[in-house]
Amino acid sequence: MAQARRKVFGWGREGEGLTAAEEAAMLERYRRRFACARFDERAPPPLAALPLRPPRLSPPAALAHCCSSEPYERALHTHGKSFCDYARALAGDYGDAPDLVAYPSSEDEVAAILDWAGDAGAAVIPFGGGSSVVGGIAPRLEPGRHKGSVSLDLCRFDRVLEIDRTSRAARIAAGIFGPALEAQLKPHGLSLRHFPQSFEYSTLGGWIATRSGGHFATLYTHIDDFVESLRVVTPKGVVETRRLPGSGAGPAPERLFIGSEGTLGVITEAWMRLQERPRFRAGGAVHFHDFHSAARAVRAIAQAGLYPSNCRILDPQEAANTGAGDGTTAIMVLAFESGDHPVEPWLRRALECVADHGGRPEAADMTDAHRAGAAGAWRHAFIRMPYARERLITRAIIVDTFETAITWDRFEAFHDKVKAATEAAIREATGRPGQVTCRFTHVYPDGPAPYFTFHALGRHGELIAQWQQIKQAASETLHAAGGTITHHHAVGREHRPWYDRERPELFAAALKAAKSVLDPQGLLNPGVLIDR
Amino acid sequence: MAQARRKVFGWGREGEGLTAAEEAAMLERYRRRFACARFDERAPPPLAALPLRPPRLSPPAALAHCCSSEPYERALHTHGKSFCDYARALAGDYGDAPDLVAYPSSEDEVAAILDWAGDAGAAVIPFGGGSSVVGGIAPRLEPGRHKGSVSLDLCRFDRVLEIDRTSRAARIAAGIFGPALEAQLKPHGLSLRHFPQSFEYSTLGGWIATRSGGHFATLYTHIDDFVESLRVVTPKGVVETRRLPGSGAGPAPERLFIGSEGTLGVITEAWMRLQERPRFRAGGAVHFHDFHSAARAVRAIAQAGLYPSNCRILDPQEAANTGAGDGTTAIMVLAFESGDHPVEPWLRRALECVADHGGRPEAADMTDAHRAGAAGAWRHAFIRMPYARERLITRAIIVDTFETAITWDRFEAFHDKVKAATEAAIREATGRPGQVTCRFTHVYPDGPAPYFTFHALGRHGELIAQWQQIKQAASETLHAAGGTITHHHAVGREHRPWYDRERPELFAAALKAAKSVLDPQGLLNPGVLIDR
Does the predicted interface ipTM exceed a cut of 0.90? Predict the structure, then answer.
């Protein structure tokens, strides 16, 4: 059975989304939060009404078979999934629509498209699942330099190509989506176990290009460590790194391309390190008096060398919003897993750390509680969250997230400053209070990766400006207080101002020099990460 | 009490070295191995007899206070500790001697030296402990480009500058030697726990510049993962990366400098992630029928997610050579350690993996055997090894090591090929059989880092050519069979031919472009890693 096609506006496929009951319950919560009887609802324009400019480029005959300028394809490849993307789409702004969408099936076709783009003066935007929340896949061009744009969709690179069971690794085409990747590994008893929130609609290549954060809260936090080797097609040729479990031969070549966000080349395949599918699990939810106590328990566990797969905490408000708590306690979702051995000794020690900081396990028996109670509620909310956003913005409800990392010594003051600044900005931008909540997505021995969600009631027509004012205040504060502008959402265009200040000047110059060698005409993803 | 000065020829300080009894026992083993009644002994030339050319450069007045052209200083900074370095030094070849040795005390002085070097046409070689075994610190210059050379010794950057107990991290000056680093951390209950074989005579900055491999056999194998942030003085200015527990903001800037081997800048300080000092330990030696069985047990442990601090194996010959075994069994040195919790559950599961592959623990009680029996003997031999080399080469005994990494699926064939090719090369180069042994230094879920040692009896006057013939055959074979030319010894000049073939062409071009931005005059460590 053919799958429904992807939504132009929203998450996933046409027909997917919140149920009526889920939506009603959600809106009821927001009515109470904003003390607002009803919302001003606007519908996104239908596809037929989108003001798409006529394509400025047409593909050469040799590439016509894998290129499309159908309005649906162009519209689908115009916006990512940032709040700003949704706001533009809702307002009918499709000025960034690509002139062409290309669907290569081979590296030769990728190379041919890059060659042709060089001649035609086209910007080329590598496209995986299109789930960027930082303006990473909008086909924007530099006027005067580019005559049009091509969105290069890797979805035909959709296979696990080779499996090495002995080394527990696989060679995988980069355009594969999360579920297909796991389905193809499952018969071999293996798993990548990389589950970003975008899992269903993001790709291996996208994860690598953006340093995606995944399933494991500790140790293997980013996709980076799972990359054994890479193949990248650049405008100057193919880069293939050697398949090795480790090396000390000069600066690691993979690390130049991991996080390059489509600016240096098109990642076409990778050898990835895999996991056994877990056979042993233990964990569950733990309640704490407040968020900072929970954070101290996380620090103790992170520094104990126990490496839980999950060790995330939610502040009381975030716990309440996701149905994981009643708003009176902070919650830790703690889990250990293994494909090899029972994990109770690990859990036992972690629960001692938890008790030292006043944590109270929800279940008396924590050995099989990871999908029950608060932990299960949180998990469900996490999976459904991407579907909520398209139903909120149509009511002018501004919900967005931003995330960072900071060392433990600065964390508490950092958290309080960032939260206060964002709350103040919401009041200023929208004229009424909103809400800012925090959780940890990943944790390290030397600090956590705090993840903030904010909720504000905006006004149609002003959504982008209101969002920008809040984003600006939050980003300024977290940058000034020592955080990184992104722990795993990537830089794209929306984080550029703060990334440029975080990144050492001379490293920027070195990166620009590297780009000038690999992409001398500046075809690839202009405006993302670096300017020419 | 002032310490004795460092040896110009040999390891450590004057007066340190093997005892007469250690040396006699060692030579007796070699006499038996080569069936050779006595060795042809040559002494290295005394300092006063070294043919040092008159300095071609003199420092400007402003830098005279931190520069020296004393023969001792120049000789000390001429050679690293590779076999080839020892052979040159033994033959009195000091043609690479630097014209000046600079001892800056501040980043301003480092910058001033780089400025002056640019004007004077001097090559600048960053120097930590001088323990390079790959020709990484020899002051070689490009004729026509450089008028002379300066060895830039960081030994005055010798302090732990700041400690963050909460995040378990410290800001540390890069020229500090291993023992001083640990001594300054000890009062705080902390440790970097990075113990390369060169520990006593290598520095933090050197470890970072060369991607040094350390104490931990799993997980934290290279220094890379302990680097929280870096300061690097380049000819174009200072690079300082942000202190963060993790980030996903573009390609990681630290990773460009980690492994840059002094070619992009001078690492002056780093925030390093630290460990609690271990309070709990368990482990000991395990005997196996043969090396490949031991390797399969290592694979099982590495893939089980147990993360032992030690999980090294020695083949029967290497075990015999180091006094850890009698030559009939391969030996695994297995250890778990923690600053937080007892590690018996971890050890128990590892011993089950071991038993699956026929491993027999040496002690009935493995909970406190890590310094006893074979494990203790191995540890002692490991620490004394650097002192043996200066006493062997004077007898024309060629002993050298090379190391690599390879995925598990290819390991067994790889090992057998590399060993056979090296043995054949020894026979060809020296006219008699030698010995090639193997151990693992580090292990990953997807493959081991095998470390080979070879022993051959050469002839004075031909040592370099004989060594080169063996090194060439070993390197060609391991490269062709898919290994990396170095897992943790670095590239320097001696590994360049194979590094150049292992490294993707376009990555080399990108690296060269980065260097041209940071070091436009090509002052830094010419010939290492990249050419202009």
Answer: yes
